[in-house]
Amino acid sequence: MVEHKIHKGVVMRSTGSWYEVRIETGEVVSCKFKGKFKKAGIKSTNPIAVGDKVSFIWAKDGQTSVINAIEKRKNYIIRKSINLSKQTHIIAANIDYAFLVITISQPRTSLGFIDRFLLSAEAYHIPVVLVFNKTDINTFKEQDKQEEWIEKYTNIGYQCLETSAKSGLGTKELFGLMKNHICMFGGHSGVGKSALINTIQPGFKLKTAEISGFNLKGRHTTTFAEMHLLDNGGYIIDTPGIKEFGLVDFKKEDIAGYFPEIREYMHGCKFSNCIHQNEPQCAIKEAVKNGEIAESRYNNYLAILNDENVNKNPF
User: Fold this and answer.
1) Neighbouring residues of 235: CB distance < 8 A, sequence distance ≥ 6
2) CB–CB of 89/76 below 8 Å?
3) Where are the domains of the chain?
4) Under CATH, what is the fold of the domain 93-244?
5) In the CATH hierarchy, which top-level class contains the domain 4-73?
6) pLDDT of residue 208
């Protein structure tokens, strides 16, 4: 009699037909799945994604191991399917942290870029840590600006780190946050994502272009996602497809709710359908006037609200 055992693990890699699942012992098992898994509200071309926690029937007799269940996801990132416009493709699931790497110069990261990234992460329920990198090359003026930005985002509730791959500043704290967590990195090309990764774990072999995904822009690609294990038990999600971190079925009336400080004040508006632009007795505009909401954040909210492409593929 052939014995088949049920095991649990996390999906490390997906090729569309095969899934590599890592179990607690560290062993990786190649699996397929049979049938369809239906997730409420998700019309996806791929039922299983990197980061999914699954159970599978492990066949050690040379037969194929088969995934038979997926645990409920705490979050996920999707993009529009390349060939099927009405469906989506799940890029990754169960993400613990998104690290947005920011540089004041070389290259310059704009507040508009930061706020769109944060809005997207809020929509997908993904915690973000803002990593201010290349601190060692800041001029006095640039350092003042960085400290101003850190104060702005700390007041909203976002965790901020100052780092330098060259001097090692903040890299231990960054590595500590990644311990036993599934993580992904974002930011413009050239902000030093790969250098940071190589500093916290020397010899880590990821291509710079792969790490530099998750920029909120870029054309759709057909690459497959993969997770890499760190020495501290953490994981890094690696896929250029993360560049398609746009929102699907995004509604303009939802935008305000993805800004934590606007969400805090919005119930004080006179009109329940207030979009905080031209309406009278708007609590948000009053909070901006009183300095309780940063003017830059409000202006970026308006820019996103009035983007004519916001309902199509906003980022």
Assistant:
1) 181, 182, 183, 227, 228, 229
2) no
3) 4-73, 93-244, 252-305
4) Rossmann fold (3.40.50)
5) mainly beta
6) 46
